[in-house]
Amino acid sequence: MDERGNAVKSEKILLGLTALFLVVLLALFFRDRAAAEAAPVAVETERDAAQETFMPDVSPLNINTASEEELATLPGIGGVLAGRIVDYRTEHGPFEAEEDLLKVSGIGERKLAELDGRITAGG
User: Fold this and answer.
1) Contact present, 64 and 95 (Cβ < 8 Å)
2) C-alpha angle 62-71-102 in degrees, rounded to nearest 5
3) Residue 30 phi, psi dihedral angles, 5° rounding
4) Residue 104: C-alpha distances to residues 1, 81, 83, 109 (Å)
């Protein structure tokens, strides 16, 4: 009976310590929450870098005057596809609109949508 009594006593002590720990955590949570609500955070920034450093010029690339190397820098257009664009332009003349790229083998609606805002046919 002595061992059982010691086990029950140990369990009660552990249960009490656990409850105390949870109460302390709860108190810390509410204290931090109240402090966060009381003092809003103000962030001050300095503009040391020029805009071009973090937001380069993204003017559209003219598909009628761009070189093969320039065309290859467009998303989804590699060297082979850039070569096809230049070859098509050489054979058929300048593109009248961006949608004319659909006539180039390897360029579909999805690839043209990826290029939206990044290319122009000039004019």
Assistant:
1) yes
2) 75
3) -65, -35
4) 91, 9, 10, 11
Residue positions counted in the chain = 123
Query: What is the per-residue pLDDT across 25-49, written as a single tens digit (0 to 9) for each?
Result: 999 999 988 887 777 767 776 666 5
Q: Are 61 and 75 in contact (CB under 8 A)?
A: no
- Supply the DSSP string of 21-63, one letter for each residue: HHHHHHHHHHHHHHHHHHS---------S-HHHHS---PPEET
> Cα–Cα distance between 39 and 77 in angstroms, integer?
51
pLDDT classification of 63: cutoffs 50, 70, 90: very high
The Cα–Cα gap between 36 and 100 comes to 56
Q: Residue 105: which residues within 8 A CB-CB, separation 6 or more?
A: 84
The HSE-up count of residue 42 (CA atoms within 13 Å, CB side) is: 3
Residue 71 clears pLDDT 90, i.e. is over it: yes
User: How far is it, in rounded angstroms, from Cα 42 to Cα 1?
Assistant: 64
What pLDDT sits at residue 33?
86
Neighbours of 94 (CB within 10 A): 13
